[in-house]
Amino acid sequence: MSDAMEMQLAVPQTARAPEVTDRSIGRIVSVTGSKAIVLLDGTKGGQVRTADRPDMGTLLAIDTEKTVVLAIVSALSVPVPAHRDDDTEIWIAELGLVGELWRDKTGQATIFARGVTAYPSLGNRVRVASKAELGAAFCGEPSRSVRVGCIRQDSTIPAMIRVDELLGKHVAILGTTGTGKSCTTALILRAILERNPNAHIVLLDPHNEYATAFSEWAEVISPRNMQLPFWLLNFEEVVEVLISDPSRKAEIEILQELIPIAKARYSAGRARDNQAMRRSVMPEQARFTVDTPVPYRISDLTGLIDERMGKLENKKDLSPYRQLRTRIDSISQDGRYSFMFGSLTVYDGMTQVLSRIFRVPVNNKPITIVELTGLPTEIINVVVSVLARMTFDFAHWSEGKVPLTLVCEEAHRYVPATDHLGFEPCKRAIAKIAKEGRKYGVALCIVSQRPAEVDPTILSQCNTVFALRMSNDRDQAIVTSAITDTGSGLLEFLPSLGQREALAFGDGVALPVRIKFDELPPDCLPRSTTAHFTEHWQRSVGDEGFLEQVVEKWRSSDIGAGGELAAPAYIDGYVPELATEPPRAESRRHDVPPPARREPGPPGGGYGTGRPMHQQPTRPATLRRDSAGPGAPAPQPQEAAADDVPGSALKSLRDRLIQRQQR
User: Fold this and answer.
1) What gap in Å lies between CA 29 and CA 319, rounded to an integer?
2) CB neighbourhood size of 645 (10 A)
3) Is the C-alpha dihedral spanning 286, 292, 295, 300 positive or negative?
4) For residue 446, what is the enclosing H or E element?
5) Which runs of consecutive H residues, i.e. helices, occur in 398-527?
6) How do residues 180-236 score in pLDDT, each as one tens digit?
């Protein structure tokens, strides 16, 4: 054969070289619904090329006529292992078919779509997806996606989340304590806020840890500056606060009857001031229900209770009224409830409350962090219930023009799986967002360390799930049951995930993927780091001033917002009639002035006077808690009835003290 002929034969072989080069790793031997089985290529000794050896979670590609089918490795096995080194083994890979790339006119596979329309056939070759195919599949539409990390298969490919799909169909972030749930939540929310500076997010923070993560963007609402007037509560929430025992039917019926009348009286008083109400309309006319969010005065409510007691002749019938009156007085005088009952005056500030919580207008603070630490334990679920219910109602009545996102940290507290636990109205309000919120632009984000303790109905409504490391079998089973994606085989990795790693499923991500999250800067981390025991135990804390500060904070947490005692309350058993010197609050250091806290309110009125709390006018101990307001007579000092429970207690205490002095 001549040299020229050899060169002619060599050229076509060189030209066909890229086609001859086979990067496939096996062939399809079974297709069942959304799953397929690949018989991996092997050589003697069962060796496959190391560079192309598939791993769990690896994205593989299967070429068809018009598409490139994408599949995720969900299981690897050797059904027929070799007994000798020179024997050939059979290696099997189980795949989950998750999507496909459509070819354009040039033959390039660039358009990704979830689901499979053209299934692979038996004998089709399988290969590892190229970098371009990974980018087309995972990156999605850049204008509507944000980066949160990188994919484990190729660290150069960003892990993107699709914001509209993530929030539009709810999201859950689940993982064992210490795996990075708080950091993951902060990372995802910060990525969204960087791209959407006019967002409206409400984050329930039970441990006061997120303020540092959103210092430049957050409106922080804590018990010291919270204003949530009692009249915003619906009837079930009012009953929980004032009665807290559903078996006390008589007191519940009293409230159900009198609250609408109190609302009508307040409305009538305002209308008379504005000369906008006909004289023929009586205040008691039932124009309001117990759930209508309009203001009313506690003084009107207690006055109505006194009126009813005065009309009763049978002393046995007075007991429910006395108990209810005593409870109302106790709650309204408790400093811990000052954010709800501590207003000196009552006015219709619902607009201001909604503006602050839901950030309308945003004013460069697109996220509201509601810190719950410091609130009375028995009322936290009520506060969450009010916020969740108002979130849905606001979105409903605004016709979805202001999309909202409610983030529930430690969600198992508010929506427990067990029926008799938690506060049913709170659970029902969050469940309503989960089931119907998408129609009105309300997104729900569930964050929990115990998925098994979260209501499964609510968890199943979360279309996107970020699953961090979990070791508990029950938690793993709950997450597995909530995942309907074909890549659910990845959940076998849950116990072995590393720090800042998660498995992501659902419409919020292009494909089921194992993500390595980006690291947050130190100044953007939440205060959720684990205590360094060995570091702190190397030195002794011997300063007595440290304990004094701890005790001061401890006691002030029960005094209430702003550090002021709620008047009229007695300090350390102080009784005005018996004291020879003014009362002294032991929990306050005399050389330190009380912190100034300005109450929000309109000019010249409102439920705040615009002055610091320690400069607020004091009231006599016998006056009612709130002022009468416009259109109503000024409150008069109340005489304690001889058969009234608080009066009897004070009389008994006074008699004992006098006897002790005489001895």
Assistant:
1) 80
2) 15
3) positive
4) strand 442-448
5) 424-440, 456-460, 473-482
6) 889 999 999 999 999 999 999 999 999 999 999 998 999 999 988 998 999 999 999
